[in-house]
Amino acid sequence: MYFIYSLLMGLAALLLVPYWLVEGMRHGKYFSNLGERLGFSFPGLAKLPAHSTGAIWIHAVSVGEVNLMATTIAQLRAAHPDWQLVLSTTSSTGCELARKKYADLSVFYCPLDFSWAVHNAMRRIRPTILVLAELELWPNLIAAAKTHGAKIAIVNGRLSDHSHLAA
Q: Structure pTM?
């Protein structure tokens, strides 16, 4: 199933390349963080030490989720003061806000949901816990977290009774 999903993601990305190129040239979008989005470089993780007791990767999609995570981040810091907390976002506005609001955290763009990209991020961060804000559920990211031994938590998520029973 992951193979089919990954194949469709690759096909969609291939079809969107012309759009991304045009938008990138017109508005300067997409190129500045392409290495992070593809899982090749993580300049936002420069603060992350090579060895730590544990790490918590928090994924907050955009501005709304970045703002919502303030209480959760404070609670995680209190519960695990010796653990590293890192924060990823998807949008440029979310990343900009996160870097200002949580200047002491390592903040980076979450890689696109390609298996190699998320596995590279998992190897770099080595999270003990992956915290997903809202319902930004990416199959390869979740599978990589499980493969690398990370627990997964969804905060502020909304699931219907039917979805809960199916899971």
A: 0.78
